[in-house]
């Protein structure tokens, strides 16, 4: 008897609530829903697409975050990826624009405590709520597929490998600023957020920067805070976050003046409350 592994199992029908929550331009979107996958982003590596698609998993067994870190993905969280075919490689600012769009949508649904920690973490109350991983896959014939993978905690995960200075939080621990609409249903929330990501992917590259800068100050979790920025080279920069540059780089006021950085892992020094400083 042949056993089908979760990695190769056929997708199930998408929940009606998810399908109904998709915004009107995306009602016909291809949705692949799995009880379990190794990784929703990895699905696109073995399943080339020519039209936008959404992949959802109830659980990931090999979820990935930034810098190849494992993303703890137990049953109950929101794990999904959208794939979007493009004819040119995306603008570097896209990842920030996606994070801002998802944060704005969560706030619109009543989760007012959510903000964005550069470059692409969703945070609330000083803890990580979710992460975003944007990848570009070659699709042949000078075409690419942009894959946006999102993992959002439903409740605070119990992860033994999670460092004490990187607390995590789930949606169930967040206050909702207004009576929750029907869209806050687990599956419908994925439909809403996936639509927000797709709307951002569909924007012309030239307009992404302007739209991001209009909304970023209200969503920025780091502005005015004392931070460290771990560089890919191994060095660590300390200073006060000053928002973002026009091209999405993180502006940091260091001991030698303001500098702009385009990669690295930002962390708040001495806790979120103690690090708050007014911007000059």
Structure, briefly:
The chain has helices spanning 16-21, 40-46, 94-108, 186-202, 205-219; strands at residues 30-34, 53-57, 78-86, 114-117, 121-124, 127-138, 144-152, 226-230, 236-244, 250-254, 257-261, 265-268.
What labels would you give this structure?
single chain; 280 residues; alpha+beta; 7-stranded mixed beta sheet; 5-stranded antiparallel beta sheet; 5 helices; 12 strands; globular; disordered N terminus; disordered C terminus
What do these coordinates show?
- This protein is of the alpha+beta class and 280 residues long.
- Helices cover 21% and strands 27% of the residues.
- The chain has five helices and twelve strands.
- It has helices at residues 16-21, 40-46, 94-108, 186-202, 205-219, and strands spanning 30-34, 53-57, 78-86, 114-117, 121-124, 127-138, 144-152, 226-230, 236-244, 250-254, 257-261, 265-268.
- The chain has a seven-stranded mixed β-sheet, sandwiched between helices. Strands 11-10-9-8-12 form a five-stranded antiparallel β-sheet.
- Helix 3 runs antiparallel to helix 4 and helix 3 packs across helix 5 (205-219).
- The longest helix is centred in the last third of the chain and has 17 residues, at 186-202.
- The termini are far apart.
- Residues 1-7 and 274-280 have low confidence and may be disordered.
